[in-house]
Every structure is written in C-alpha cells, then in structure tokens.
Amino acid sequence: MKELMLGNKALARGLYEAGVALASSYPGTPSTETTEEAAKYPEIYCEWAPNEKVAMETAWGASVAGKRSYCAMKHVGLNVAADPLFTISYTGVNAGMVICVADDPGMHSSQNEQDSRHYAIAAKIPMLEPSDSAEALSFTKRAYDLSEEYDTPVFIKMCTRVSHSQSIVETGERSEPERKPYVKNFEKYVMVPAAAKKRHPIVEERTRRLTEYAETTDLNRVEEGGDNSLGIICDSTSYEYVKEVFGNRVWVLKIGLVNPLPVQKIRDFAAHVKRLVVVEELDPVIENHVRSLGLAVEGKSLFPAVGEFSQEMIAEALGEKPAESCTPIENLPGRPPAMCSGCPHRGLFYVLKQNKCTVIGDIGCYTLGSTPPLSAIDTTLCMGASVSGLHGFNKVGGSESEQHTVAVIGDSTFMHSGMTGLANIAYNQTNSTVVILDNSITGMTGHQQNPTTGKNLYGDPAGRIDLEALARAMGINRVRVVDPYNLAETDAAVKEELAAAEPSVIISRRPCALLKEVKKGVPLVVDPDKCIGCKSCMCLGCPSISFRNNKAVVDDTQCFGCNVCAELCPKDAFRAI
Fold it and tell me: What is the distance between the alpha carbons of residues 432 and 288, in angstroms, rounded to a whole number?
C-alpha cells in the first residue's frame, strides 16, 4: 500500500514493521512525532522519559532483555544521552536497538546547529541517514538488522526537512522476531575496567567489518550521469537538492551509511569523474574523509558550514542557472514569535521585569519572555542550566545578586535536568530563588505529558510527582505557589522570596491556555471613553491587544479572558464583553 507520509511518521511505520516492542524518548523538535506516531500502534509500548539519558538507558535495558527497542531525541538531547551512548557502544546489544537523532540545520527550534555525525564517529556506532520518507521507513528496518548482525546500537539521523516533509511510502506488514533470551554475561554487560578493556578491541573489529560492509551495501549507491565532468558525493537532503538541480546529468555518489564511510567505493567514484565535489550541510564530515584518502575534492570552499542548503544555493555554487523561484512579498512587517494570548507565563515575566530582576532563563516556550516588549530573560543556555547557573551567579555576586536574581524553568524541564541544580543550591547554600513555571504540560514541543502532569504518553492516569513535596524533600524550606494571573500575589511572592535569607522556590502554576481541558474566560473589550492611551497594557506583549487611534483595542477572537491587562489599566478601561 502506498501512502503520503511525513518522514517522522514513516520512521514510526518502520518501527512497527521491524517488530519493535518498546520506544522511550524525550520530546524534542524535530524528532517528537516519531514516538507520537509509534504510540498509535498498540504493539509498541511507548513512553516519555524524564530526559534523553533515561530514554536511552531504558531502550538499552529492553534490548538486553531481548526485545527490539527505540529511543529518539533532537541533536542537543544527544548531549544529555552521551554518557550511556559511549558505553553501550562497548556492551553492544541483545535484540536490536535504534537511536534516532534529529538535527536542526537553520536552528528553526534549537539553540545551536550541532552536527550529530560527530557522535557516531566518536562513539564508533553506525549511522544511517535517510533523505526522504521512503528511506526513513526502509532504513529503520535495515538498522535493526544491522544492529543484531553487528551487535551494536545503530543511529538513524534525521533532520528538520526529512522529518517534516512528505513523500510517497510503500508500507508492509509487521514482522516481530521472537524474544531473544537474556544470558548472564559479565564480560559483555558489566563495564568495569577489566571487562571494558576486552570490549574495546571488539568495537574496533566491528568498525572494520562495517567499513567493509559500507563498500558493497546499496545504502551507498552510485548513480551514473550523462556527463562525467562533475561527480557529487552527498547525503540526506543535500541529495534531494542535487537531484533537483542536475537530474541525471552528473555522477552522484549517494551516501546512506554515513558512518563508517567507504574507502574504495569513494576512490573508484573519484576515478570516474573529472571534478569531485561534496555537498553536505553543516560540518565537512564526508569532505574530510575524502580528503584523508588523498583525493582532490571541493566542499566547504563552495558551500557554507552554517544553515540549510537549497536548490538555488547549490545551482549557483556549481555554475548552474538557478531555478525560478517565487518573488517574495516586500515590505512585510516583522513578526517575531510571541507567547500566546492567555499564556500564564506573561504575568510572571511582567512582574520580574517590574522588579528589575536579572533572570537566568532556560529552554521552553517561556524562553519567549526574552523578546520585546517584556525582554525579561537575560540568559538561555541549555536544559536545566538556569538553576545551576543561578547558583554560580549568586555565589560570586553575593547578597546583592541574591536579592535581584532568579532562575526560571518549566515543569517538564525541571524534571529533565533542573532537579540536580536545585539540589546543588540546597546543598551548597546560596539564597537563590528558583521559579518553576508549571503550565501542566510540555508546551514547547506540542503538549506532551511529563512526570508532573499525572498522565502518561497515551493520556492515561500515571504516577504524578508533587513539585512542592519534591522541593522540600531536596532541602528547600521556603516553597510557595502563586497564580501568575494574579499580579499582586505574584509580585508579593517575588519580593518576599528575594528578600529571604535562605533558598526558595516559587511555583507559578496555571495550565497552558491551549490545553483542551482549560476553559476559556470571557473575552475583554476596551471602553474607548475610559482609555487614556497610556499603553500600560501594551507592556505585556499580548497578541490580542493592539493600539489604534491612540486607544487600546482587543481582538475578541484571540482574547483568552485572563484579565491580566485589566489589572494594569489605571482607568479600568477593560471590561468583559
């Protein structure tokens, strides 16, 4: 059966057809939908783990137990999972284990453009790189066969364009292997130095065998062109762009197994063409490998090491006439991202700004508190860094910074990697104030559950972690909950906790306004006779409020009825419709 599928959906179909039994992941754009789609198959148990390290360790445990397993994460999430990753390379697997890592060239939803191929090389783990949805499905199935044949976890490297574009996929039936028996094996699974020393040579021999496989596998294929004046080596979406520009006019070596790379196959390809060019996004991984073989090659001298490529870029760099593209509409106003109407974080950030707080930020939809007009966040680094960073900031800043600096972190991010930072504050004692923005969901990646929501991936009842009890158990005596829609209450809490002589946690609790179960309030309207045009309400940056003819105007189709704007109006100009 043929079907039009997103790359992520096709990968999930590959998991189903490969007989996968367990998927454990942490949501991260652009990888999230692979697990959400897999959860639609009752044969696959799926879960959201607290973070990527836990997800990878869970998948490895299922593999050791004898069932095929899967975990997914975005590129920066792989940093969190790096600890188990390198040692799983040594232990190998029992049943097949596949790790999906989704890169984000162009940083559509990420804080860097990390190239995950380096992890495959460093950890000495094979990596497959599909270029469309059909390959996302077929490569996933192939990955499990490779995993079990070579006793190794296998990477599937996706990227934003492959994950979130659609192409035709031909689906098949599920084939579920019998459970492999677990056999106690100290030298394989207990990675103390004595055993690990014996495993390292096995990893090197595995890499040698996989390199031989790379020479003959159809994952790496040569497509002969009509003209051998140019030969292009490419992978992932770069292959699609090259084919759209040149069709069958040039020779192409399409790389699907990006680690380990072939040697003789590349040499033979280079011998057939007059000019050799590597087209790959981000770092020159393939180019450096080709250059190490002593071959003359062009790559980053023609193409940038930043951002996404396009057909036009490739055409221009290689002397082709760019395809005609749509003429962009000129003079459009800028539309920076903003927190939604009714977002519970808006009131909290307004209070922090009014108190002139230095705000150590974190990763989540609340990071939008850094944008004008609120401009309330000073730093954003990585998941959990706000809490740890606050402690370091205050340790050297002393009482002056302790009285004016807070960390903000979401409920899901706190569970992911904020808890250890809070433990550090409690243990090493700074008078730090941590604000947990509890909107009852993982908002940034599209409303996934987390350990604080009381629901699992399927929306069924699950264990729920009590944030207040957790903070107290970690040694924080001052823990309080505020409603960020209540500016006076929130302001009082911030002032009191900043002035306190011990660590404290403020939980700013209000569900995300976009959750289906959250009831929308009555929209507001502005009485033009009362409005004096002071623009106090505009300081919130609410997309429901605009300013026309020196008066505030509310778009009642967007207004959530949170009433935060009404709390700011000195003339009581806002009222319910």
Answer: 47
